[in-house]
Design a protein that fits this description.
Number of helices: 24
Strand order of the largest sheet: 2-1-6-3-4-5
Helix content: 25-40%
Radius of gyration: 22 Å
CATH class of the largest domain: Alpha Beta
CATH superfamily of the largest domain: Aldehyde ferredoxin oxidoreductase, N-terminal domain
Shape: globular
Distance between the termini: 27 Å
Structural class: alpha+beta
Number of domains: 3
CATH topology of the largest domain: Aldehyde Ferredoxin Oxidoreductase,  A, domain 1
Length: about 600
C-alpha cells in the first residue's frame, strides 16, 4: 500500500468546460515525489512548446500538493503553482502555505491541471471528489479578501478554502500572485497573471476525506523525533516564533548584506526601528500557524484601523530599507494592500526601488509621473503605488512590468537588481558568495528559497561556512538546491530545514508513503527535479550566459560595512558549480548526467 498520495488528478479545460478525473501517475510520483517536481514533469508532458507565450490559452497552470501535504508531519501545509512564468519566461514554481493545500487533498485530489481559457470569468468549486465550473462575473474586479468572503458565503461554508487572484492578476501584472487564506501567497514569477489570462478567478475547495499513512506505527515515533528536533532548535523554537521571519532584519544588517536603496549599500541605519523585534513590540497581536505547523512564524498585526498579517522579512525589507522608507505603519499598510490586490511584494518593492534610482539619476522625467513622488523614502508613494500597479494606472502601468523591463525602457537595464529578470530578495550577494551562486543559477530567476545558502553562510546551519570563500561553494549550493527540491515536492515548509536534515525528510517520506527511499535515492530525485527544470529553461531559450547577476554585484565593490570592497567572483563560482553538477562548462547537463538521472 502506498500512503500520502490521494491518487487522483483533476483536469479542467476552461475552453470547452470539460472536467475529468484521472489516476495519478505513480511511476512519475516515485521519481519526482510530488508538488514541485511532479507538477513540472506533468507540465512538460502537457505543454511541449517551451517557447509558448505564458498567456497563450494552450499554456497550462498546475496546482500540486506533495505526499506529506495534509498529514500530521511538521509544517505539512504546502502546495505549488507550476506554469511558465509571465515575469521572465522561465519555469515557474510558486509555493504557498496556509490551509488550501491540505484541503485539496482532503477533497480527494493531489493535483489540479488547468488548461484552455474561459470565455467569461469562472471559478472552480471542488467538494469531496467532485468538481464544477461556476460563473464568477460577480467576483471579477473584487480583491482577494472580498473574493474569499463572498465565496464562503455563497457556498454557505466557512470551512471552504479559497485560492484566488485579485485585480493585479486580472490586469496581468507581471508579478501578480495567487493568494489563499487572504495572506498566504504563491507569490513569485507572475502565476497570478497566467490565472487571470485564463479568466479563472478562484478555486474553492472543501473536503472531509483522510490521508492514508502507510506505516502508522512507525509514523508516531518518527513524528515525535522530528518535533523534538524542531523544539530544540533555537531558530524554529525561539527566533521564528518570537519575531517571525523578520527576526532576520538585525542579523542580516549586522552582517553587512542588508540591501539598501536598490542594493547601493549593505547596511541601513534604521534597521532596528523596522525589525521583527520592533514589530512584536508595537504591532503584533498574536502568532499564526499554517496547517500542522509547530513553528507559527506568521504575524497577525494591527494598526489603528487595520488588521493584517505580516509583513514577512522579505516584504518588510523591500518596502523599507530598499526604498529608504522609515514609516513602519506605511510598510504594514502597503503589505496589506499587496495581499488584497494579489501582488508579489519582493518584485513590487524591487521595481519601485529601481524606479527611485532611475528618478534620482535623472532618467525618469517628473512630468510623466502624474504627481507620483519617486524620491527615496516617500512612504505615501509606497502605499499609493500598490493601487497604481494593481490597476495599471498611470506610471503604475510601467511599474507593473517589473524592474528589468522598466529599467530597460529607459536605457539602463543595469539598474534592475534581478536575475533572469526576477527581482532579488533581501540579501546582497556581495556578502555571501554561495547565496550569489543560488541567485545566479536559480531555475525560476532571482530567488532565495531554492537553496537557502544564507543558512550555512550566515546562520551557521548545519555548519558555519566562510561567506566570502569560493572553494566548495558549488557542491554545497548544489546539495542545498537538490534538498530544497525534495522539500518543495514533499509538501513540507522549507523552514523545517533549520532543524531537520536529509535523513529526517527521508524517514518522513518513507513512513508516510511506504516507498522506502534511501537518502541517496531521495537526493537523486531532488537532483532529477533540478535538472528537469534546467532542461525546460534551456528549451525556452535560456543559456549559461543567463546565470548571472546585476553588474552592480560584479563590478561595484560593496561601499560599506563588514563586506566593504567585496564583489562577487561569479566566473569562479560558476566553474565550481557546473563541475559539481556534472554539466558542461557552459551550463548544460551532459548526456551522461541525464542518463544517470533517467531523464
Amino acid at each position: 500500500m502506498v500512503g500520502g498520495y490521494v491518487g487522483k488528478v483533476l483536469r479542467v479545460n476552461l475552453s470547452n468546460e470539460k472536467i475529468t478525473t484521472e489516476d495519478l501517475n505513480m511511476e512519475w510520483a516515485k521519481k519526482y515525489i510530488g508538488g514541485r517536481g511532479l507538477a513540472t514533469k506533468y507540465y512538460m508532458e502537457i505543454v511541449k512548446d517551451a517557447n509558448i507565450d505564458p498567456l497563450d490559452e494552450k499554456n497550462a497552470l498546475i496546482f500540486a500538493t506533495g505526499p506529506l501535504t495534509g498529514t500530521p508531519a511538521p509544517s505539512a501545509s504546502r502546495y505549488m503553482v507550476v506554469t511558465k512564468g509571465f515575469l521572465n519566461g522561465a519555469i515557474a514554481g510558486s509555493n504557498s502555505g496556509g490551509f488550501f493545500g491540505p484541503e485539496l487533498k482532503f477533497a480527494g485530489f493531489d493535483m489540479i491541471i488547468i488548461e484552455g481559457k474561459a470565455k467569461s470569468p469562472k471559478y472552480i468549486y471542488i467538494k469531496d471528489g467532485k468538481a464544477e465550473l461556476r460563473d464568477a462575473k460577480h467576483l471579477w474586479g473584487k480583491d482577494t479578501h472580498e473574493t474569499t468572503e463572498m465565496l464562503k458565503k455563497e457556498l454557505n461554508d466557512e470551512k471552504v478554502e479559497v485560492a484566488c487572484i485579485g485585480p493585479a492578476g486580472e490586469n496581468l501584472v507581471r508579478y501578480s500572485a495567487v493568494i489563499n487564506d487572504k495572506h498566504r501567497a504563491a507569490g513569485r514569477t507572475g502565476v497570478g497573471a497566467v490565472m487571470g489570462s485564463k479568466k479563472l478567478k478562484a478555486i474553492a475547495v472543501r473536503g472531509t476525506g483522510k490521508i492514508t499513512i502507510a506505516k502508522k506505527d512507525e509514523f508516531t515515533n518518527v513524528l515525535k523525533d522530528k518535533l523534538k528536533k524542531i523544539k530544540e532548535n533555537p531558530v524554529t523554537s525561539q527566533g521564528l516564533p518570537s519575531y517571525g521571519t523578520a527576526v532576520l532584519v538585525n542579523i542580516i544588517n549586522s552582517q553587512g548584506l542588508y540591501p539598501t536603496k536598490n542594493f547601493q549599500f549593505g547596511q541601513w541605519e534604521h534597521a532596528n526601528e523596522l525589525s521583527g523585534e520592533s514589530m512584536s513590540e508595537k504591532y503584533l497581536i498574536k502568532n499564526k500557524a499554517c496547517f500542522a505547523c509547530p513553528i507559527a512564524c506568521g504575524r497577525v498585526t494591527r494598526l489603528d484601523d487595520l488588521d493584517s498579517e505580516g509583513p514577512e522579512y522579505e516584504s518588510l525589507w523591500t518596502m523599507s530599507a530598499d526604498l529608504n522608507v522609515k514609516d513602519f505603519q506605511k510598510v504594514i499598510e502597503a503589505n496589506y494592500y499587496c495581499d488584497k490586490y494579489g501582488i508579489d511584494t519582493i518584485s513590487f518593492g524591487g521595481t519601485l526601488a529601481a524606479a527611485m534610482e532611475l528618478y534620482e539619476k535623472g532618467y525618469i522625467n517628473k512630468k510623466e509621473l502624474d504627481g507620483l513622488d519617486l524620491t527615496w523614502g516617500n512612504a505615501d508613494t509606497l502605499v499609493k503605488a500598490t493601487e497604481l500597479v494593481a490597476f495599471r494606472k498611470g506610471f503604475g502601468n510601467k511599474l507593473a512590468e517589473g524592474s528589468y523591463r522598466l529599467a530597460e525602457s529607459y536605457g539602463h537595464p543595469e539598474l534592475s537588481m534581478s536575475a533572469k529578470k526576477q527581482e532579488l530578495p533581501a540579501y546582497d550577494p556581495r556578502g555571501a558568495y554561495g547565496h550569489a551562486l543560488e541567485y545566479a543559477t536559480s531555475n525560476r530567476g532571482g530567488c532565495h528559497v531554492r537553496g537557502y545558502m544564507i543558512s550555512p553562510e550566515i546562520l551557521g546551519i548545519p555548519e558555519k561556512l566562510d561567506p566570502l570563500k569560493v572553494e566548495g561553494k558549488g557542491a554545497y549550493t548544489k546539495m542545498f538546491q537538490d534538498l530544497t527540491a525534495v522539500i518543495d515536492s514533499s509538501g513540507l515548509c522549507l523552514f523545517t530545514s533549520f532543524a531537520l536534515g536529509a535523513d529526517d525528510y527521508r524517514e518522513l517520506l518513507n513512513v508516510v508513503t511506504g516507498l522506502n527511499y534511501t537518502t541517496e535515492e531521495m537526493m537523486l530525485a531532488g537532483e532529477r527535479i533540478w535538472n528537469l527544470e534546467r532542461l525546460y529553461d534551456l528549451r525556452a531559450g535560456f543559456t549559461g550566459k543567463d546565470d548571472t547577476l546585476p553588474p552592480r554585484m560584479l563590478k561595484e565593490p560593496m561601499p560599506d560595512g563588514p563586506n566593504k570592497g567585496s564583489v562577487v567572483p561569479l566566473d569562479r563560482l560558476l566553474k565550481d558549480y557546473y563541475a559539481a553538477r556534472g554539466w558542461t562548462p557552459d551550463g548544460k547537463p551532459t548526456e551522461e548526467k541525464l542518463k544517470s538521472l533517467q531523464l
